[in-house]
Structure formats: C-alpha cells, structure tokens
Amino acid sequence: MSCLRKFIAVRLLIASLSVLAALASVAQAASAPYPQRVVSLAPSVTETLFALGFGNRVVGVTTYCDYPADARKLPKIGGFINPSLEAIAAQRPDLVIGVNDSNHPVKAREMERLGLKVALLTVSNVNDILNSIKSVAGLIGSPEAGEKLVHKITRQFDEVTKRVAPAPRRRTLLAVGLRPLVAVGGRNFLDELITLAGGENISGNAAQPWLNLPDEYVVARAPQVIIEAGMGSDRGRVARNWNDLKSIPAVKERRIYGYPSDKILRPGPRIGEGLEEIARLVHPECFAESKRESNKGSGCEGSRP
Amino acid sequence: MKVLDRRRMILVNGVLLALLALSVVGCALLGPVRLDLSQALQDVFSANPDAEILFRARLPRILLGVAIGGGMAACGVVLQALLGNPLACPQMLGVSGGASLGGILGLILFPHWLLPIAGGLLGEISWVPLAAFLGALLSMMLVYRFSLFHGRLHPYHLLLSGVIFNSFIAAVIMFLNSIVDFYQAQGLLFWLMGSLSTRAYLTVAFIWAYIIVGFLWLWAKGLSLNLITLGEEAAMQLGVETVALQRQIFVASSLMIGAMVSVSGMIGFVGLMIPHVVRLIVGSDHRLLLPASFLAGGIFLCWADTLARILLAPAELPVGIITAFFGGPFFLFLLYREGSRKLAL
C-alpha cells in the first residue's frame, strides 16, 4: 500500500516537475533567445534533437550517441551514466538535456549549481516519449517541429496497429541478453510496443522495467515469439540457446529472432520504426508485401487462431 | 572438543545427507510456476512443458547449487584453517577475482561464442565459463608466485596478495563496465552478482567432477588440518609437512574456486558462514567438519536459490542477496548464543 502511495507521490512529483519545466521554457521563450548550444546526456535525446532538425545546435553528446552518423563526430561529454561535468561545462552550453532515469537528476542539481540550464525528460512509457519530443521542440523554440515529428510517429503507430489488428495476439518474449536472460518487464515502453505490435509480453506482469527471468517461467508461459534484441545477437545463436526446450511454441514454430537493434531499444524518435520492426517479427504474415491487397480487411494470412 | 568416533561421524553426515536429499526433492517441486508432477514424469522425452520445467529448468540448477554450495563451504573450512583467519572465505583468494575478470573479458570480447562439445555431438556450451576458468588458473599462478618466499608459501602473504589482487581486479572490472555498451553493462552486472541458472548437464557434471576430486583431496588432509590450526610451528613439530600441505591446499581450493566462479559467478557468504555455523554445531575436527560443511553448504544454497526464484516471481533475484540476507542474521544469532553460553559456563 505504502509502495503504491510512494509510487503515486513520485509520479506527482515528476508531473509537477515537468509542469515547472514547461513553465520555465515558456518564461524563457518570452525573455531570452532560444538555446543555440545544447548538450545531450542520452542517445535518445541526441536522436530527438537531430530528428527535429536542430542537430546543428548540438555541441556535446555521450559516447553512446551513434545515431545519426553526424552525432558521432560531436564532442563527447562522457557516458550515459557518468557524464563529466567538466566536459559539459567546457562546451559552454545554454541548455543541457537529460532523462529522468539513471543518475541524471542528481547530476542536474550539480550542473544547476554551476549555473547551467538543465531539462530532464521522462521517457518511461510511449506517451512520455511523445511528450518528451514535444518538450524538446518547445525548449529549442520550434513547437511546430515537435508536433510534426510526433504526428509522423503516431502515423507510423497507426499504420502498424492497423496491419496487425486482424491477427490474434502472440505471446512474446523480448530479451536483451540470454545469459542471464534479461527480459522486458511491465513498466517499460517496450512492453507497450509489444502490445501495439499485436503481441503479449510474457513478463509484462512484472513490476520492474527489466528483469532476470528464470527458464522455467519461459517454459510455463510458452511464448509464441522470442526476440533477442541485445547487441551482436544473431538468429542462429539465439535459436540454439532455446533448442532444448521443445515444448515452447516459438521453438517448435521457429519464431525465434536474434535482432540487434537500437531502434527498438531507445526511447527516442525512432520508436515508430521500432514498433514496425517488432510487429514484423511478431506478425510477419501481416507484412507480406505481395499479399498486401488480399490481406486488406480479411485478416492476415497465415495467422493462427 | 567433542571426541570424534565412527558413530558420531555416521550420525551427523547421515542426517545431513538425508536433509540434502529431501532438499533436492523439495526444491525441485517448488518454483515460481506450478509443476504437475504426474504430467512431468510421463513422456519425459517428448515436448512436454512439465518435464522440461522439472528436468531442464530446475534439476540442473539444483544439482549445480548443491555442488557450488558444498564446494564453497568446504573451501571456506580449509582456507580458514590454512590462513588461521576466521574471516577467510573463497572470495578472498585472488582466484575468484581472476575468474571474474576472465569471465567478463569472455563476455565482452566473444559474448556469443559457443564451444562444441565432442564435435557438437553433445551440444554446445557458452565459452564464458572456460574464459573464467583460464582467468582463475592465471591468477592462481600469480598469487602463488607473490606468496612464495624461499620456496615456502606464506599464509600471511597469501591473504594479503589475494585481497590486494582482488581489489585490483575489481577496479579493472569496474573500468571495463564503464566503457562497454549500456545493455552489455547490465549483462555484466547480472553475471557478477552470480547465478546458478543453467540447463547444461554437461556443465553440472564438469563442476561436480572438480568438486568431488578437490573435496576428497582436502578431506584426506583432515588430520593435518586439525594440527595446523594449532599453529604452523606446532604442526611441524607434530610431524606435519606444513610446506607441502599449504601448497596442496592452496592448489586444490584454487582449482575448485576457479571452476565454481567460472560457472556461477561470485556467490558470496556460503563459504564464510557455513563453516562457522557447522563448527559451532559439530565441533572443529576437520575430518567431520569438512563433509558436514559440504552437505550443509549444499542444503543452504539449494534453498537459497529456490527462494531467489520464488520471492519476486516472475523476476529472479540474484542468489547472493538471499545467501547474505538469510545467512547473516542467522550467523549472528548463533555467534551470540555461543558467546552467552560460554560466558555462562
């Protein structure tokens, strides 16, 4: 009970903080010119800034910021978890953007003490991510670019959900590591993406965003699709890992995919594409191009009841 | 010290062995998901989910847990005797750090390599344990070299070089952890916390082979271990070849620890606590203390791992959390009780 209350309290706090941030951005819009030198503390933030068309204002990124290619050439300010205050200050940014995960809130307070302006984005679910894109656009002074980008993403979402709508839900395991098996839990935007893609996350009932899943749970929940999205995974290896558990439908029906992809793992502007990638793995029959016309309105071919 | 006779030996070990057997059966039936036993025992070899849960997901890790728990406890007993230090535990010997570093390097550099066993006939296992074991062997040689003076292994230096070596390795690991990819770092963290999760009977058999050979080797030194706790000089005067004994114990326990850490990571507390608990109950004659600790360690880790699977289901907790959480207070309680009893006498 107290846990729930604490959770609500944290949510309220985050909500009020983002309102404050929004107010601050409005106030700033009225008084000062928009930020010209922006430091990003997360790959998803970097991607958002570039996708909004303001890549030229980014003056510092993390070592993990590798998309788009232009972002790689920018000065590095450290990692996602341990950004260097010195390196950030050295870029003389007029805005630093981080996320509400990791230790960014703590770092933000230190940066504010140095006189830097910091904005933190909440990206724990799909709605948050879309809102975070809008707030970045607002902060940088182009709300209409934000609206446009969010509109594009929601269109991508609609396209995918329309395609998979006729197909039955498939129980899906989405993992980012095999040994140990780290799976997507409930409070994770990937859980929502799985649902939107016509799947059902087998560990969606877990309270954690990521969790270590015991093998017996996977056998008991009998996933129909297994996706391993960790770095450098390939299909053959992932398939071999599950080979001995023949009762799992995904093993029997060979719906096992090793799919290293930043698109689906990053809570940034590519989640629309990411959703399509997941949907193509969960319901490949809904994306068979040649049958596209015949599939219209009649349900996806090859889908099982 | 209680006198050791055959009856007591059989009684204590017999009771513990029976408890261990019960624990294995009990833990095999318990888990985060329901298991239909009658269903599981039919059609063992067809695609039967209950059979897979019992024989693929649970049994191998229970057997591994018994081996690791027993091995850690046995190593703890001999290291506490060898180093003459009640705080000695398997994690203290540089070997465990070396194994961790080897495993981490394996995870980072070749995370997806698989070793074909017997040309792929017996399946494939991850190569990470092998990398860890190589790390353990290398660090064993290093620590050994640094503790050797005039051809003698010095327990004092062994302890210090082990501790220093481990903290150095910990720094290297933290460094590696901070330069790898975010998701890879998460994987490393999980690996470091230790887990008994396995479905490979081959790995389990490999560990059991090491543990049994190492344990028998150590057990055979039971009498000498009793004498060495009196002090090195006293032991020497009583006819113990201390130089050879120390060397053998170091090598035997290092090999065991290397093998254990390489498959299950660092599972703490078993090797420190179980020997003390068992010593409080059965006395400090190593001929009984060693097998009793082995069996008690097996029982303890078996249940700790089962709790790790159940408590936060469907998430699996790192088993090290359970061992410390339940082991720590129990150990303090025993220590307190023993202390007050002694004062009363």
Short descriptors:
heterodimer; A: 305 residues; alpha/beta; Rossmann fold; 6-stranded mixed β-sheet; 4-stranded parallel β-sheet; 47% helix; B: 345 residues; mainly alpha; ABC transporter involved in vitamin B12 uptake, BtuC; two-stranded antiparallel ribbon; two-stranded antiparallel sheet; 4 strands; 74% helix; 3% strand; globular
General description of the model:
The complex is a heterodimer of chains A (305) and B (345). Chain A folds into two domains: 31-154, Nitrogenase molybdenum iron protein domain (Rossmann fold); 166-295, Nitrogenase molybdenum iron protein domain (Rossmann fold, 3-Layer(aba) Sandwich). Chain A is 47% helix and 13% strand. Chain A has helices at 2-31, 43-51, 69-72, 85-90, 104-113, 126-140, 143-164, 189-196, 215-221, 235-242, 249-252, 262-265, 271-282, 292-295; strands at residues 38-40, 58-60, 95-99, 118-121, 170-177, 182-184, 199-201, 210-212, 225-228, 256-258. In chain A, helix 6 (126-140) packs antiparallel against helix 7 and helix 7 (143-164) runs parallel beside helix 13. The two termini of chain A are 40 Å apart. Residues 293-298 of chain A have low confidence and may be disordered. Chain B is globular. With 345 residues, chain B is an all-alpha fold. In chain B, the strands form two sheets. A two-stranded antiparallel sheet of chain B has the order 1-2. In chain B, strands 3-4 form a two-stranded antiparallel ribbon. Chain B has a single domain, classed as ABC transporter involved in vitamin B12 uptake, BtuC. The chains are: A alpha/beta (305), B mainly alpha (345). The interface between A and B is large, with 41 and 40 residues.
